[in-house]
Amino acid sequence: KKKMLKYLYEEGTDIFGTDIDFYEVSDQKAGASLIQALVHMEDRLFIKAYKFGVVYCKKGQTNEEDMFSNAKPSKLFSEFMDMLGTKTKLQGYKGYKGGLDTENNTTGTHAYVTHFQGFDILYHCSTLLPISADNTQQIARKRHIGNDVVVIVFQDGPTGGFSPDTISSKFNHIYLVVQAVGKKKSPNGEKVTQYQIAIVSKQGVRIHGPPLPAGALFPCCEETREYLLTKLINAERAAYYAPGFAQSRTRRLWLKDILEKYGKPQKK
Questions:
Q1: Does pTM surpass 0.85?
Q2: Cβ pair 119, 232 in contact under 8 A
């Protein structure tokens, strides 16, 4: 109980801008109601699945219209996506949808999905979302990827760098830039694609792990998949604390309702 009150006091002071005076809830029903309200709030905020955007960028492309207009994936991009997940038919799919249509194929026929550390993960892969010959902004694709918190930008080769301003979105906070840099022989003699990885974040996003070693090359393998998925999940969690993030505001509103019911501002 003391820990719970301390938590409410610290959060409540920040919300109301003044100290909060708590009284003990002696009534068992009211006490149970307070606990249930807190548990319900946290349950609503607990993320059970993730959706990540993935944009395919051909060698030399530097603007979002070109990237979002890529109709077909390269072999390198397909190999990368096959490492991250399984290409799955959307119609009739019963898993986490991530906002995609699983009945009428209005958002494409397939998506890459996977399961990691108890979380269902779906990728909004640009080349699998509907493409328009008339709309250069590719609204149908950007409607989904533009609302993802974390986006992977896969580059077939050198493009001259990537800026978070390249893709116009208020919701995208972190970009994981992956560039294919050739192949290297593995210990068993097989040639394996190597990736360079960089993180590009918008202002206010917290530092998050696992660390990214400077100049490291990552082979196309299970270990790299696990590293990337861990990085993606931690990146999204870190983004929630960025200034003005919608989930932070929602959480504060819910907590404010609880504080107004169970706590009273101190009378000066």
A1: no
A2: no
